[in-house]
Amino acid sequence: MATGTDQVVGLGLVALSLIIFTYYTAWVILLPFIDSQHVIHKYFLPRAYAIAIPLAAGLLLLLFVGIFITYVMLKNQKDTKKAQ
């Protein structure tokens, strides 16, 4: 079972994900239908970042996954050489 700390961290991560999802959805889907002179536009970045930020996050994720897989494979290869 999860401890109290695990549950609080999990709840925080779910809340953060929900906030990011709501913000991004409003930014990408709702904002284009609101007049560009409306005051709500000052709370959002320019639309070009709506593609650039997720693209950069995805590339960083792929980079870190690749580095992790490379590290694990090299470590396992070194351990098997020691065993022989």
Your description of this structure?
- The chain is mainly alpha-helical.
- The chain has one domain.
- The protein contains 2 helices and no strands.
- The mean pLDDT is 92.
- InterPro entries: DPM2.
- It is a multi-pass membrane protein.
- It holds the Pfam family DPM2.
Would you kindly provide a brief summary of this structure?
The chain has 84 residues and is an all-alpha fold.
Blueprint of the fold:
Blueprint: H1 4-30, H2 49-83
**Uncertain runs:** none
Number of strands: 0
- Helix tally equals 2
Largest sheet: none
Radius of gyration, whole Å: 21 Å
What structural category arises from helix and sheet content? mainly alpha
Kindly report the oligomeric state of this protein.
Answer: single chain
| Mean of residue pLDDT values | 92
- Principal-axis shape equals elongated
What share of residues is helical? over 70%
Number of domains: 1
**Cα end-to-end separation:** 41 Å
Helix and strand string, N-terminal first? HH
Strand percent estimate = under 5%
